[in-house]
Amino acid sequence: xxxxxxxxxxxxxxxxxxxxxxxxIAVLMSFAGFGIYFIAAVVVxxxxxxxxxxxxxxxxxxxxxxxxxxxxxxxxxxxxxLSKKSGIKTPKLMVADIxxxxxFAYGSPLTGNRVAVTKGLxxxxxxxxxxxxxxxxxxxxKHRDVQIMMFVSVLPAIFYYIGYSLLLSGMxxxxxxxGPAMALGFAALVFYWILTMFxxxxxxxxxxxxxxxxxxxxxxxxxxxxAALAKIVSVTGRAKLMGANxxxxxxxxxxxxxxxxxxxxxxxxxxxxxIAPREEALIQEIASRRITLADRIAELFSTHPNIVKRxxxxxxxx
Length: 318
Hints:
This protein has 318 residues and is an alpha+beta fold. The chain has helices at 3-32, 35-62, 73-86, 119-124, 127-142, 145-172, 178-217, 221-241, 263-270, 280-288, 293-300, 307-317; strands at residues 65-66, 92-96, 103-108, 112-118.
């Protein structure tokens, strides 16, 4: 997918999400009255509070701490250089106490922007691959993905709570109003499901967009990012196959550069070639692998693109 097409797809998806939400809210208001205003306001306030204070929660959950330029001069120098190339202020550099390799960008007006790398990432990747991963995460910050995804995630949540509120009203309310309330409740939950699918699609598009940014600013380009993703998937997938509980790291997996919960499936798609992630054969082998119907269906419910499709896109860039 070309850059122009990628940008158009993201804008179109965002417009569809907002348009469907506006239409559905207008319909619900006309039938259900203004009570839904209160539910929507509560959901918005809760999500706004989560966004503002989420960095503190993330730091606590993942044991992330800020590192100074004196503690990690080489890593901090790379981050500063990439931030300058990206045209953004250098975010705080955090190291998360997580054994599996991964990275994520986050922040809020209360904390400022932060980029975290896990201890597993630093011990698994070469420096040029770490640089490519940092470039990807800076892409998320430059494109304001944290704010955009927070906004679009609020809309499905509104319909979720409205739907269940109407279902409860239909079950326990006055007899003559039960039928319409139940029908509106089911309709709201259908809209929740539809908006969730569009939100997941937008999330996958923005991962591709961040990949392009990482490949553009990192000295190793798309090849280094592809190798980094292969290593991340390989190490995490093998850890899962050996019984590691990676789900405990998945509380905020939408932020991660790769979804740890599907690393074992990604590893199966990569095959044995994932053992040698810096060889040219890796990229060629991944690009030629067949994506099954089951893989395509699984991708629909994922925040991250299918690993084979993702590395194929990076191969096209390189």
